[in-house]
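Page 37, top half.
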Amino acid sequence: MAANDHAKNSLFTRAVNTGQNGLKNLAQLWSLKTLTDLPDRFRNLWEHLIGSYWFIPTACVLVGIILAPILVTIDEHFDRETVRELSFAFTGDDDAARAIMTAIAGAVLGVAGTTFSITIAVLSMASSQFGPRLLRNFLTDTPNQFVLGAFIGTFSYSLLVLKSIHKYDVAFGVPQLAVTFAIIMAIICALLLVYFVQHMVHAIQASHVIQNASNDAIKSIYHWYSDQCDITHQRDVEDNDVEQFYAWPKTTIYSPSCGYLQQIYLESLITLTQDYGGVVQLHANLGDFVTDKNVIGYFYQRPADHPNNLKRTKTAHLTVIPRTPDGMFWQRFATCIRIEQRVTHSNDIAYSLGQMTEIAVRALSPGINDPKTAVNCVQSLTTCLSIIMRRQPPSPYHFYTPPTQNDDADTSSEQRFTMLAVVTHTPRISDFIDTSLGEIRRYATADLMVLKALCQAMVDLNYARVNTAQQQTLLHELKLVARAGEENLSYIELIDDLKAMCQQAKQFILDDDAAHQYFAYVGEFAAHIDKALQTESS
């Protein structure tokens, strides 16, 4: 018996200890110290909710469910004589109120079904014309969700008000204000139906879809690219371990799960690296697909005698001691990145550029054969790429600045210490051009209109270039455009026309004063006509 009691006590003790250790690890994992960038996480959660098709309609239903008992309760304590003085207020008996509420509930529910059917038809057409990956833009369309939510919210409200209409004294049995509000909502729903039809007609137009994708790309560019050069990172690069950390002991970082990398929480990752005394270098970029066996980066452990270990605190015995990643490190690292099974926006520039590229590629397919849409995509991509070329790219180096010993003291005269914490991958302009305009070029090899639009795009991008590397990128892409037309166009006249335009564009790009000149391609036949007209006029 004593042995059994001892075994039970040991089992209970082990269970309690296991639970305490689990709670301790969970508290350490989800502490505010680890989740430094909670605003970004809540913002991502909010964007996910707004982007879902059910959130806004569900919110409208809840509003209707809440409004119904509130207005009915107000009706019970409201002066009915005052209501009768309002010309637009409902003042009928319970039979008329029940008939009106029944008609409103049935009508809005039928219209809600109609709008849903229209939405499904638009999605089917958009999937075949623009591509299945663009369906999310239609599903996350806020006006579309709000219209559907208004219909089903009015239906829910009407049912609850209908339930409160009783067959007794008219003065107290008919919620006049609630019925009046239902009538107003029915009129609003009728107007929303007209707006919904007009909105869907514009939504399925290719120009509208391209413009929305372009606006998303420009918004992401402004989020990541600054409008002026940041000299802070230049000073940090000179004073920190940007060149030396490659020689430190490193540990391979694998992806915690399979999917698409959608978010990197830098503040949490910086906190993690400082707790373990090292530097994390990530090679994967936003939007990349990874598996649980993919190497996405490395953790470089700072040497124990490194002077930066003393910079985190003024107290010597609180100095950070570099340590090798353990189980808690990998758990915390999994919370520093967000991996999803499908590609989402998440301020990813390549995602929005890829949408316009997909529209152009599908427009060039034999089934659709719409090169004008492809040209519009090229022009929109040119706008986005020109903004990228003019702005300062984000620095791949992210630093940790230790807090001062006395936060209330004047720290303006103190030396600014920073420690390298995270190194990320920053795409170059050549990468964006190759994955957008270059992808369209590979599918438009036999279409002169699109190839000439790509040639013109190189000229337009030349107005925005700020360095020689960008100039060489444009010249390289221009060379590939000329080669594509030379090898795939059907007639020699078309080939000569494209080669002549590419040659003029090359000379324009190589001109040092090209930013102050106007480029206009003049073909051989057009030049011959102009010469003949000048001869006749003279």
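Page 37, bottom half:
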Amino acid sequence: MSMSSILGSALSGLQAAQLGMRSASNNVANVNTPGYARSEIQQIARSSGGQGAGVEVTGISRVVDEFLVAASIRGSSDLGRAELVSEFLDRIQSQFGSTDEETSLFGRINQAFAGLAQAAADPTESVSRLTALSNLEEVFEEATRLSSEIRSMRNETDRRVQSTVERVNEIVAEFSTINGEMRALTANAMDTTGSENRQAELIDELSTYLDIRVEAQPDGRVFIKTQNGVSLLDNEQVKLDYVPAGTGAYGVEYGAITAQVSSSGARIDIGANIKSGELRGLMDLRDKHLPQIADELAELTSGVADALNAAHNDASAYPAPNALEGRNTGLIGSDVLRGSGEATIAITAGDGTLVDQIDLVFNAAGFTVNGTPGNSMNDLAALISAASPDVTATFANGELSLTASAGNGVATMQNEANPSSLGGRGFAHYFGLNDLVDSRRPGFFDTALTGTSAHGLAPGGELGFSIYAADGRKIQSITVPVAGASVNDMIAALNNPASGLGQYGTYAMDANGKLSFTPTAGYKNFDVSLASDTTQRGTTGLAFSQLFGVGDAARMARAETFEVSADIRSNTSLLAMAKLDIDGATVPGDLVLSAGDSRGGQALQGAVTASRTFNRAGSLTGGVSSVEEYAARLAGDVGSRAAVAERSLDSASAIQAATDQKRSDVEGVNMDEELARMTMYQQAYNASARLMQAAKEMTDTLLNMV
């Protein structure tokens, strides 16, 4: 072997050992760097003319297992989603509290009905009435607070979607820059491990935000796609766009996460292609969990209010108030009022004796007032006023009011044997003549209208709907203008398969005048969402959606609209603790209302356990239940959601920990191994240096011999 061959081999050994030491030292320096993958030199034996010529370092590579990396990416996305959902649902559960906490909504409901029981025990005691009303007001204040908290959390999730989308864009932009660097380094056969480690760090972070897959390219670049194949980065960067709604209000239409995917300007909904990660968790919270809980809360709150009003409207204060002012029913003067059963309006003197009474009988054609038939709301007000000189009835802007003559009071009662029913509620209850709990908008949607009723909607109004596919993509916007003259005409317009919603489902009205939507086969998982409503029914100020409960805003916002009647709070003697005593033998002058009567108070107390019908809300099915039972179901649902989210988090954490451990076993830096490698390279370096020294000495000897 020639001297030059010895020197060449030794020099290549020095260089290889030097690069090996450099790789080992870099590994040791990054032993505590999260996500760092150790590097190793790749070397082969060099030959020349069939003879050994030292060693050649072909490159420095990171030690990675692409299958473990892919598993870690998936685990990171699932963990990001689980952590976020668990965090928010735990927060909302803590806001609701448990059924045995006095300060929770459920505890306040129990206290309110316990206060009513105390007031019923001594109906003449003003302090107990005041306490009962105060406790009851706290129920609706707490419901308002919870609803407001849900809206705030929805707004928070929406803003976090925006900030997360911005961070995703930043990461993808940095990837694009690194891709350019990697291509240049690879082309020049230079060390790329530093850039590769930065790529790994960015991939780990990006995978917490959304589910991705990474495709390595021969030139060192990486292409990034969502798990189902939508490209975020290839030869060009795809920039995501999202505009937050700026509010968590119910019924607001949230925008989509979109991206321009071609030079033609075509855009796609990226959000529908995100199946995991924090972004998916945020969208699930905003669009699913939080609105479902809000819907359930609104149904409970309206159920409490309606149960109390049912009892209070079938009772009376002592002495009876001079006037009863009803709620805004959404009815107009020409509406035909149909129903069944009987009710009585009584005019009483200050001492509780009967001055006069008016008997109402409802039937399928209309009603009679003291035997005189009528059918419209205008007829009802006129006939009541004509039936007795001691009471005046007025109907305006959807509200029925009764006013007794000077010095007298007015009260109502249901016929025990054949109680009146208008849309499933008693006469006074339906009109809210003696409501204990007031609301600025309808608390229930049993309108008592029929399909042949005039819809009463002003021309030019319209309802706008957005249709979302099962994967969350908005696929269509549909506008339905006011059509025809009757409710049936309006329903037909909504159900039109060409210009309405008929392709996706149909609206139908039941016997109580409640509108419901049934999805068409194949579209059960589609979401038909009300986006806008510019209609108004007569002079009531109520839109079609508010009257019939169409859309999230009409249903969910109810939780924030209830309050104990201001008149009753300011004058607790108006709390209806008594009931009228009227039968077929009662005549004017008989005592029909007494101060010590507590039957009305007992009915208020019993409202918490009385069976009533709850509508489907959120994930809770509808059906017959008591307020007490429904409150327990709501508490259970909120707790169950949080518990399921926590179990999902534990599972995702365990999977991620196991994946990370296996990945670390392969990629991580082991100090003992690195020290052994350093010793090996040090010895190899010393040996190569000794060879060069020996070659030098041999060369010097030869030169001295000349």
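Margin note: The radius of gyration is 38 Å.
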